[in-house]
Amino acid sequence: MKAAVRDRYGPPQVVGITEVPMPVTRKGEVLVRVQAAALTAADARIRAARFPRGFAPFARLAFGVRRPRNKVLGSCFSGTVHSVGEGVAAFAPGDEVCGTTGISMGAHAQYLRVPAGRILSKPTAVHHRDAAGMLFGGTTALHYLRDKASLASGAKVLVNGASGAVGTNAVQLAAYLGGTVTGVTSTGNMDLVSALGARHVIDYTCTALGEIAERFDIVLDTVGNINPSAGRTLLAHNGVLLLAVANLRETVTAHGNVKVGPAPERVADMGTLLELMVNGHLVSVTDRVFDLADIVQAHERVDSGRKVGNVIITPAGD
Ligand SMILES: NC(=O)c1ccc[n+]([C@@H]2O[C@H](COP(=O)([O-])OP(=O)(O)OC[C@H]3O[C@@H](n4cnc5c(N)ncnc54)[C@H](OP(=O)(O)O)[C@@H]3O)[C@@H](O)[C@H]2O)c1
């Protein structure tokens, strides 16, 4: 099978398409033919070993100190079950499924071996590329807004980076949960952010974050340009500051109403998000779809920092 393989850290060009052996399922695992996989900001970070300040030693221990331990990136996918390993009763060949891999990754390939407990059925009403696209930003936004901030109806919510993978989901979920959303984005993405449910949209090319006069119950930063002290000034009394991007110092010193940390990959949350998609409450925004063969261009697009929603690759070629 074909896979997007890299054996060193570096720019998009370190990734190349290579013929590799088909994975063999072990007990409790499922082999998925990958119809769509997201190429996320995390994939690009791991590829380049470009981690938030202070995290590099820990990240390299997890992903490979000198060279990548797992050569194929990609952790969010949607596809069709090809075969199942011993003891898997919940899925059968032909089932349409989606899920995440955790740090083992490997979804930028035609086939992916994954524990059965990491996948769930994909509703037929949701396209593979939308399912794969929603998983990264959707689970993150849900975790921060619902679990860390306990978003309640009527809350005033600021989403900084409203057009990214996390931001597009955060705007929609905050509005769905009853929040009044203000999105921060650039001029060209204002209409999109508004259409996703933001009541107010701030163009950061015209208005700096420090010039925003309004105060919010929840501020979610998905860009990494809000530090705790600047973020606190945007908060209303008892407001919560959510930093999806935080350096090591901000992470270890975060306390009280400043929340940081990795979002868990929970199948139950993915189910919640798929249901919202089926019911028309959540859409997955796709920036571009790339063939697996165009993996370098796909990485370049993510590295641009300008993608709108999700970059998707289609390893199975359909
Ligand atoms: N803590 C966690 O568990 C967790 C989970 C997922 C992601 N993350 C992190 O969250 C970050 C965002 O991820 P993502 O996938 O959403 O990224 P992304 O999709 O690559 O974000 C790109 C978007 O950021 C916007 N942007 C860039 N500079 C901006 C600025 N100054 N103000 C407002 N918007 C700006 C861009 O819009 P314009 O083109 O309009 O500027 C673009 O649409 C990444 O660093 C990722 O590692 C953390």
Task: Describe the fold and architecture.
The protein is of the alpha/beta class and 318 residues long. The protein has two domains: 2-122 and 285-314, Quinone Oxidoreductase, Chain A, domain 1 (Alpha-Beta Complex), CATH 3.90.180; 138-259, 3-Layer(aba) Sandwich (Rossmann fold). Helix content is 27%, strand content 26%. It contains nine helices and 15 strands. It has helices at 41-48, 56-63, 128-148, 165-176, 190-195, 228-232, 248-253, 267-278, 295-303; strands spanning 2-5, 16-19, 29-39, 76-84, 96-100, 111-115, 119-121, 156-160, 180-185, 200-203, 216-221, 235-243, 258-259, 286-291, 310-314. The strands form three sheets. Strands 3, 4, 5, 6, 7, 14 and 15 form a seven-stranded mixed beta sheet that branches. Helix 6 (228-232) links the parallel strand 11 (216-221) and strand 12 (235-243). The protein is globular, with a radius of gyration of 19 Å.
